[in-house]
Design brief:
With 100 residues, the protein is an all-beta fold. It has no helices and 6 strands.
Length: 100
């Protein structure tokens, strides 16, 4: 989990894409959570990424429309987001996570 994007200067533009490289020995699902109002009425926007596993790094690109609450409400802006969290069923390695 990272709170780096909580600072105003680190907020991505609405058209930004979250990019990262990920490696997993076994096929798995990696869930990326963008969390709004972390210390209040927490709202989590999720995006699931299927990883093929094996000896290959996968490049992942997630646009804003890929993030939705469990009820299906889409994320409209990154301005309310305080934290980003990466979760997976199996062990994974992340590299080069950035907003472009």
């Amino acid at each position: 989990m990272s709170f780096k994007m909580n600072a105003s200067k680190d907020k991505p533009n609405t058209d930004a894409i979250l990019m990262f490289d990920v490696y997993s020995k076994r096929p798995t699902v990696c869930t990326v959570k963008l969390i709004a109002d972390y210390y209040g009425n927490k709202i989590e926007y999720l995006s699931n990424v299927k990883l093929i596993g094996g000896d290959v790094w996968q490049n992942v690109k997630l646009e804003i429309n890929r993030f939705k609450t469990v009820e299906g409400k889409p994320l409209r802006s990154y301005q309310t987001i305080n934290a980003v969290e990466f979760i997976s069923e199996n062990e994974v390695m992340l590299n080069n996570a950035l907003w472009v």
